[in-house]
Amino acid sequence: MMQVDRRAVLLGASASLLSACTGGTVSTSAGEPQLKSVPNAGYDQWVASFKSRASARGISQTTIDRAFRGAGYLPGVIERDRNQTEFTRTLEDYLAIAASDDRVSTGKSMLNRYGATLSKIEAQYRVEPKVVTAIWGLESRYGARRGNVPVVSALSTLAYDGRRGEFFESQLIAALKILQNGDTTPERMTGSWAGAMGHTQFIPTSYLAYAVDFTGDGRRDIWSDDPTDALASAAAYLKRSGWTHGQPWGVEVRLPSGFNTGLAGRGSTRSTASWASLGVRDVNGRNVPDYGAASVILPSGASGPAFMTFRNFTVITRYNNSEKYVIGVGHLSDRIVGGAPIRGNFPPDAQGMTLNDRKDLQTRLTRAAQTV
């Protein structure tokens, strides 16, 4: 259920997710200007009714009053919800942002800066530092884009709007529980326009289920400039979802000529030895080590890069059920510890253009505009 909830809110913010791209997903609307509230009588009536329902769900009057003291209707949230578009970037485009030179270099720096903390998190949750760092990088650009929208205002606006009212009301109740628990204050509880919060962009129900107090200060603080609790919470999320330490998300592979592409797909698993018997090798021509049952996927079609994926690939889908997101996290995690770029060639897009073609076109258009 937690996977469904998180995926629903990330799809709601999908148009702005890809600051790596995020959510396929990468960071949300964290870097946008502050949204302004406006008077709305219908919203005020809804809030009055909701307060009674919140009270019946065990939320104290003190918490309710504090949470809504500065809350208001945010038309900008509805605008973003209405204008969201299904993400159509190719995997090549997605990875060009998700594992950009800047994101890789910043990831290396953050992995070094927080190495001791990440090692302690690894010791407790058995999730590798590079993976936690990559999630951090995709979700909020390593904390630089955590979101500045008041979560109570955003969630109450979306719940009042009604398009996914039941879902967002459940998130609002969860947000009030977080406040009642004392983990943060209404003023500090900010995030994306769709309610995802902190360094690792947890929605409230995911927070209640998975967030941890790793610093031991009595609060599960994913909003702080100190990312410790947020990073540990992401690791706890993956661990609870079945993460296997030492197993990669996947590896890029080379398929033999005439390979039966009907064998590819996440629903088709076999041993690495079985794949080897079919001629599947890593990009250096070696047999892939035995990391357990594996699938071969062709996310860009038969002419694009191929990957052999393992159970940890599925575990990352629990964080965000988008194939591009999982490959983005996995590839970024590999790159920030010195892994190579993808070796396979990506096919042209629907317009028959490669990424380099589009870059060249943009350069030419920019140059032409400057000469006008």
Give a written overview of the molecule.
The strands form two sheets. Strands 4-3-6-5 form a four-stranded antiparallel β-sheet. It has a two-stranded antiparallel sheet with strand order 1-2. With 372 residues, the chain is mainly α. It has a domain at 250-319. The radius of gyration is 22 Å and the shape is globular. α3 crosses α10 and α11 (165-181) packs across α12. The protein is 50% helix and 5% strand.
Largest sheet: 4 strands, antiparallel
What overall geometry do the principal axes of the alpha carbons give?
globular
Unreliable residue runs: 10-31
From the N-terminal CA to the C-terminal CA, the straight-line distance is: 55 Å
Question: What is the percent of helical residues?
Answer: 40-55%
| Average pLDDT level | 90
**Strand residues, percent:** under 5%
Order of helices and strands: HHHHHHHHHEHHEHHEHEEEHHH
Number of helices: 17
